[in-house]
């Protein structure tokens, strides 16, 4: 029997399970197709690694996490106009450099939180959020919009400004600089663009295009727009809805008015039409 067993082992190849590649964060400078790849171990080995306390924790991963400053992986070169933050579930956030500057003015900076495999991060719905999450550290971190806290982070890409990549997002030069739509443009790019396109411009696909086929201001009154931004589920809800409300600390009433004004300025003129009812 021993000889038979030996023959049997030699007759068939030994099949071993393929090793699962270790998750890594890809960091690419503006214009680079390939950049630096950081595994969990590589991030933890950086001299800037710290255990930080999250003053707010919208991703439910804290309050204390191991993390490295975003600046530690971006290198010492010139800061790009914007950062594109990609997640494994397809979510993409645009982080204009102006947001980094404004946040720094009130003592808040972005860090990359690193998951401990022994304590995996899960959302309240049980979704895997790791192994990397972009978080904001500082007492005033609650002023950062939830769209700029990125779980399941897999890539950081330096980019030109969104309006340079999608000119259709830019306001006409004839709009007076005193018009609140200019502030609305900046707010849209940082808070709305991660999920929504406008007239086909952008990469967001988690929510509807706010300009096509009809601009949102044609069916959302200013009051209705405020209500939707503050508490989407109080206005309309379905099982697949993902939009979270924006508290006043993130978007003031004046800010919401400015976004509404921006959308109105980019209205292409398409009117509401009575569609044929479904049978």
UniProtKB/TrEMBL annotation:
The keyword Metal-binding applies. It comes from the Bacteria. Residues 1-17 form the signal peptide. PROSITE patterns: CYTC (PS51007). Pfam families: Cytochrom_C. Keywords: Heme, Iron, Metal-binding, Signal. The keyword Ligase does not apply. One of its GO terms (molecular function) is heme binding. InterPro entries: Cyt_c-like_dom, Cyt_c-like_dom_sf. Residues 179-267 form the Cytochrome c domain. This is Cytochrome c.
